[in-house]
Write a structure and sequence with these properties.
The chain is of the alpha/beta class. The chain contains 8 helices and 7 strands; from the N terminus they run ααββαβαβαββααβα. Helix 1 packs antiparallel against helix 2 and helix 1 packs across helix 7.
Length: 289
């Protein structure tokens, strides 16, 4: 009799949880258009303010944090950080890349700005505002390698705040870490006094629980990644605006960031640096996943 009672109670609890999950999904879908309108209304005054902000200034960096904090609130994105960034400067923070939402969460949680691929500069409004926020665009084409490396060296020497770099060069399904491209570490071969600190990030459900790999690929990956090296593959492809709206429709998520100690890299060439950092980040990713 006790066994039947326990099974009955367990079944009722699971049914209640299922109903709650369906209600949350329905409410998120209902409120997504409202959130999207709120986001557009949030962009307008910030874009106007950005007109008067000197490109790459400290005011632009503050504006980046202010704007992204409001974006996190609207979208339902939370962030949880383990560890602290080094106080050494210049500081290059290297991590795995999942989606555009690193630009939202990292400035709020960690401060600083980004190195980004040149293509983003051409995105309507986004490219311009990001530049105002202090994002530095680097042309990663082989023909522009020398200029890109020189730009990295110059900006790292200038920045007295953390600069983030994603050496995978693209986003994935968020379930593995691609090999790192070594070209942009070329400037460190000449003994540049730069502290490099690895970080590992994961996307979680808002309550901090683990998102299954296939759900991660389907719901959180930024684009159709069937050309990637391994599954799970995302089944759909969304535009930039489509991905933002989709995140509104699922109610947001949590970004969990683990900050690792800066490794000794002196005397290594660019390929050794890229391999070492990938090994550290990928191993920690697989360990904590």
């Amino acid at each position: 009799m006790t066994i039947y009672t326990d099974l009955s109670l367990r079944g009722e609890a699971e049914a209640i949880q299922s109903i709650k999950a369906k209600m949350r999904k329905l409410l998120n879908a209902i409120f997504a258009p409202i959130k999207f309108i709120a986001f557009i209304l949030w962009i307008i005054p910030n874009a106007i303010f950005a007109l008067f902000v000197p490109t790459g200034s400290k005011l632009g960096l503050w504006h980046l944090q202010f704007f992204m904090r409001g974006t996190m609130l609207i979208s339902g994105i939370k962030v949880r950080v383990h560890g602290r960034l080094s106080k050494e400067r210049p500081l290059l923070v290297v991590g795995n890349h999942i989606s555009i939402f690193e630009m939202v969460t990292f400035p709020v949680a960690l401060g600083g700005s980004f190195f980004a691929k040149k293509e983003i500069e051409g995105y309507p409004l986004v490219g311009w505002m990001a530049k105002k926020f202090g994002v530095i665009y680097v042309d990663r084409r082989p023909s522009q390698a020398v200029a890109g490396i020189e730009k990295l060296r110059k900006e790292m020497a200038r920045a007295d705040y953390p600069m983030f770099l994603f050496p995978e060069g693209t986003t994935t399904s968020g379930t593995y870490v691609l090999p790192f491209k070594s070209t942009l570490f070329n400037f460190m071969e000449n003994g540049e006094d730069v502290t490099v600190q690895p970080i590992v990030q994961f996307y979680r459900y808002r309550d901090g629980s683990v998102i299954p790999d296939q759900v991660m690929a389907d719901e959180y990956a930024f684009f159709d990644n069937h050309k990637m090296t391994q599954p799970p593959y995302c089944k759909v492809e969304r535009s930039l605006i489509g991905q933002v709206f989709h995140v509104f429709s699922i109610g947001g998520f949590m970004v969990e960031v683990f900050i690792l100690p800066p490794p000794p890299l002196a005397g290594m060439n660019r390929k050794e640096i890229a391999t070492k950092l990938h090994e550290i980040i990928s191993d920690k990713f697989n360990e904590l996943k």
